Amino acid sequence: PFPLRQQHIADAVGLTPVHVSRVFSLLRERGIMSISEGVLRVFDMSELERLAPQSLLPSERMASSTLRKV
After folding, report:
1. Strand 33-36 and strand 39-42: pairing?
2. Other C-beta atoms lying within 10 Å of the C-beta of residue 65
3. Local structure of residue 37 (DSSP, 8 states)
4. Hey, is 24 helix, strand or coil?
């Protein structure tokens, strides 16, 4: 494992660390994932994928749905 921090994730996806923290808290509460000691574990990939489009901006939703149709 390498030291994966919420700051690294926030920088990589263009979000604030506060937003990443809130999203991670919700995902942990739902039992979808955990992050501990620099390791991100996904327990329910299908639920994570189901939730992912809901977090996209409207313009990103359009691009995402277009890509999925191809």
Report:
1. antiparallel
2. 11
3. T
4. helix
Report field, pTM of the whole predicted structure over 0.90: no
Place of tokens 């996209």: 56
Instruction: Determine contact, residues 48/27, Cβ cutoff 8 Å.
Output: yes
Contacts with 18 (C-beta within 8 Å, 6 or more apart), sequence order: none
Predicted confidence (pLDDT) per residue in 7-46, tens digit: 888 898 888 999 989 998 999 999 999 988 778 899 999 9
What does the alpha-carbon distance between residue 53 and residue 18 come to, in Å, rounded to a whole number? 20
Exposed e or buried b per residue across 18-42, where buried means at least 16 C-beta atoms within 10 angstroms of its C-beta: eebeebbeebeeeebbebeeeeeee
Cα separations in angstroms, 2 against 8, 15, 58, 65, 67:
11, 21, 34, 33, 32
